[in-house]
Amino acid sequence: MFTDCFTTMGHMGWLGWMMPLAVLVLLSLGIAALTKYLLTSNKGDRR
């Protein structure tokens, strides 16, 4: 499976290597933002 994936990525040129990296970066940023939101959510109104 990995061989087929790498072959397809190789035929697509630099775009084939950029798309999976972009997806991983966006996914990790989303997870980091969700974690930050959950850990720093306000516990009621503190004014």
Question: Can you lay out the helices and strands and say which pair or pack?
Answer:
Elements: H1 2-11, H2 14-39
Helix pairs in contact: 1-2
Keywords: Membrane, Transmembrane, Transmembrane helix
Transmembrane segments: 17-39
Concise summary:
77% of the residues lie in helices and 0% in strands.
Question: How would you portray this structure in words?
Answer:
- The chain crosses the membrane at residues 17-39.
- Keywords: Membrane, Transmembrane, Transmembrane helix.
- The chain has 47 residues and is an all-alpha fold.
- 77% of the residues lie in helices and 0% in strands.
- The chain has 2 helices and no strands.
- It has helices spanning 2-11, 14-39.
- The longest helix is centred in the middle third of the chain and has 26 residues, at 14-39.
- The radius of gyration is 18 Å and the shape is rod-shaped.
- 0% of the residues are buried.
- The model has no long low-confidence stretch (mean pLDDT 84).
Order of helices and strands: HH
Total helical elements: 2
Describe the sheet with the most strands.
Answer: none
Distance between the termini: 56 Å
Q: What's the quaternary structure here?
A: single chain
Structural class: mainly alpha
Mean pLDDT rating: 84
Care to count the β-strands? 0
Q: Unreliable segments (pLDDT under 50, ≥5 consecutive)?
A: none
Strand residue content: under 5%
Keywords: Membrane, Transmembrane, Transmembrane helix
Transmembrane segments: 17-39
Identify the notable features of this structure and list them briefly.
47 residues, mainly alpha, rod-shaped, membrane, transmembrane
